[in-house]
Design a protein that fits this description.
globular; 353 residues; binds pyridoxal-5'-phosphate; 4-stranded antiparallel β-sheet; alpha/beta
Length: 353
């Protein structure tokens, strides 16, 4: 991959916005540079400081903490307002609107297509195999044209729950000249060794997305992570909005990193609950198929999914109807809840089958 020729031409000579804090870094006792309100925030939150101050545009503290936790160099870590922001930035980084295209593999996460459309970028869809929900590198590489700038894998895939084949993704990284994005939002629920993170060193065109929204239990703070070569990370920093990660979010995330043990314990509990729920769903009469899951949700097939979905709503139980996808006719997706929630869900579902 040649990053400078992959970049959107208008970004090649971009001078990024210089924030007050990017012009001065170091210790000072008097900060009168950013037109902040020195009287402070009218709201006080325990454990949260500096709400009257602009956050660090480079998130040095938070990225360092994450770097230490996961043993990934800081210059290979980017933070976004959820993965959603990173997906949008990647599109804006390499795709010329009205001209370039991306490749996605439905049925998958809906955001890739919507974000592409917002940016006036074409979407080429290669459908996953309807049995295995995977796709061969050969097929992908054949579909690539000079206008293809980004390929989005989702592994584990939402809504099917399975991992994509690593060898096939690696083959695409090796042969494709654009960026290969692997969205690993659910990777912490998969078996160890399923992540593509270690391939980062071999492929400067590989971008891995993770998030605080799922395993970390912090969807509300909107914090997404991207891991990539320093050159790619550097460009993301140049084109993001200067203060994208706010004070509240960074301080909560820093506190969460201190609670790694609790987070890991909950992941193990969730995995156990998921495996048990799969078995329980399989034992219910009227369930046609339960798909394997490497995530914190389960996709399953019934006879009349829409009807069951609606009847569950009447009982106050909300799951996701996924049957609109041609490949996923009559499927429903349920998120694995707490043991108590799962115990409530099963009889509610079973009474409708
Ligand atoms: C939930 C989810 C995310 C997380 O998005 P955030 O913007 O980080 O909350 C990313 N990708 C997939 C496939 C998801 O299902």
């Amino acid at each position: 991959m040649n990053l400078s020729s992959l970049l959107r031409p208008n970004l090649k000579n971009l001078t990024p916005y210089a924030t007050a804090r990017s012009e001065f870094s170091g210790d000072a006792s008097l900060f009168l540079d950013a037109n902040e309100n020195a009287f402070g925030s009218p709201v006080n939150l325990e454990g949260i400081k500096n709400l009257n101050r602009y956050p660090d545009p480079f998130q040095i503290k938070l990225r360092s903490a994450f770097s230490k936790l996961r043993k990934i160099p800081r210059d290979q870590i980017f933070l976004g307002v959820g993965s959603d922001e990173v997906i949008d930035l990647l599109l804006r980084m390499v795709c010329i609107p009205g001209q370039d295209e991306i490749i996605i593999f439905p049925p998958s996460y809906g955001i890739y297509e919507v974000a592409a459309k917002i940016n006036d970028v074409k979407v080429k869809k290669l459908f996953l195999n309807s049995e295995t929900f995977t796709i061969a590198a050969e097929k992908i590489l054949k579909a690539v044209t000079t206008k293809t700038k980004l390929i989005f894998f989702c592994s584990p895939n939402n809504p099917t729950g399975n991992l994509m084949n690593k060898e096939e993704m690696i083959e695409v990284c090796r042969k494709f000249q654009g960026l290969v994005v692997v969205d690993e939002a659910y990777i912490d629920f998969a078996e160890k060794g399923s992540s593509m993170l270690s391939e980062r060193k071999n492929f400067p065109n590989l971008v891995i997305l993770q998030t605080f929204s799922k395993a970390w239990g912090l969807a509300g703070i909107r914090l997404g992570l991207a891991f990539a070569s320093p050159a790619v990370i550097d460009i993301l920093f140049k084109i993001k909005s200067p203060y994208n990660i706010n004070q509240l979010t960074s301080q909560v995330a820093l506190q969460a990193i201190q609670k790694q043990t609790l987070v890991k314990k909950r992941i193990r509990t969730l995995q156990k609950e998921r495996d048990q729920l799969i078995l329980q769903l399989k034992s219910l009469k009227g369930i046609k198929k339960v798909f394997p899951s490497a995530s914190n949700f389960i996709l399953f097939k019934v006879l009349n999914a829409k009807k069951i979905y609606k009847a569950l709503i009447k009982k106050g139980v909300i799951i996701r109807f996924r049957g609109n996808d041609s490949m996923l006719k009559n499927t429903l997706r349920v998120t694995v809840g707490t043991p108590e929630e799962n115990k409530r869900f099963l009889p509610a579902l079973s009474s409708l089958l």
